[in-house]
Amino acid sequence: MAALIRDRQLIADVNALETVAVTELDVAPTAFEQVLDLLQEAEFVELTRNPAGEVTGLTEKVPMYRDGLIAIPPRGKPLQHRVGVL
């Protein structure tokens, strides 16, 4: 999903994004919010929420990888320790 939203700086229609994620990327409707939370944890997006906690928009910050690969550590490591260039 990160590749889908890259270069679209601001996404205000989260429902449309969910529809595309579900129909085109086979993201389970029940997992959509978890995917957004993971993208935020990876600092690939900044979510905007209403007072009820529902996602109302997002700003993308998906990096472009041109000169290297991102290091993927062993399972179980917190995500904040996963980002790094080889």
Polypeptide structure, described:
- With 86 residues, the chain is α+β, with helices and mostly antiparallel strands.
- The protein has one domain.
- 29% of the residues lie in helices and 15% in strands.
- It contains three helices and three strands.
- The protein has a three-stranded antiparallel beta sheet with strand order 1-3-2, covered by helices on one side.
- The longest helix is centred in the N-terminal third of the chain and has 11 residues, at 14-24.
- The protein is globular, with a radius of gyration of 14 Å.
- The protein starts with a helix and ends in a 26-residue tail after the last strand.
- Residues 81-86 have low confidence and may be disordered.
Order of helices and strands: HEHHEE
Strand order of the largest sheet: 1-3-2
The secondary-structure class comes to alpha+beta
> Low-confidence runs (pLDDT<50, min 5 residues)?
81-86
Helix content: 25-40%
Strand content: 15-25%
The main β sheet shows up as: 3 strands, antiparallel
What is the radius of gyration?
Answer: 14 Å
Mean pLDDT: 80
Query: How many strand segments?
Result: 3
